[in-house]
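User: Predict the structure for this protein chain, please.
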Amino acid sequence: MPVDLLWNSPSDPIATLVLAHGAGAAMDSGWMNDFAALLEARRIRVARFEFDYMAARRTGSRKPAPKAERVLDEYREAVEAVGGPVYIGGKSYGGRVASLVADDLHDTGAVEGLVCLGYPFHPPGAPEKLRTAHLVGLRVPTLICQGTRDPFGTRDEVAGYGLPEGIRFCWLEDGEHEFRPRTAISGFTHREHLASAADATARWLSRAR
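Assistant: Here is the predicted structure, written as structure tokens:
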């Protein structure tokens, strides 16, 4: 089955980012639309796609997200459809899937780097159920944009994971999983945090080349 791609294409792109959605929101959700548009404005060409379980919802079949390991080939097919070399990443679940294929695709020259937007280090309320084993040995250049109070992994929690120096972070003060802060406490708005994450992503992509 051909991969259905949704494009944001600036006239003079500096890099291409293949971007996957989170577990419960489609590739054209409000968050994904907003972030892809912010990246496009910063000269990043964005190719979005959906995993099969999410695409099936458009025909009335609602399924929960499968384990990340079960959709790795779907991510590989999306990269092949876009053509490389590209950067890969995603929001939450999508970023986790990308992180599981990143090293292999980097070794073949298909992928130049990885961008995770709100990485799900553990399920909310279950900090002992870590999803970090593969990150400790990750070789591909990586950027993770994360809210400091993300229930899937706060800044204080992540500091104790022993992650390699090759993983760079953009921390968004008081942001939760969608990067939304409590404005009265932090002084930042959600839009400002989205823009900051897009700025960090664009800068990182331009320097990682």
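The helical segments are 30-41, 52-55, 72-82, 93-107, 155-158, 183-186, 190-208.
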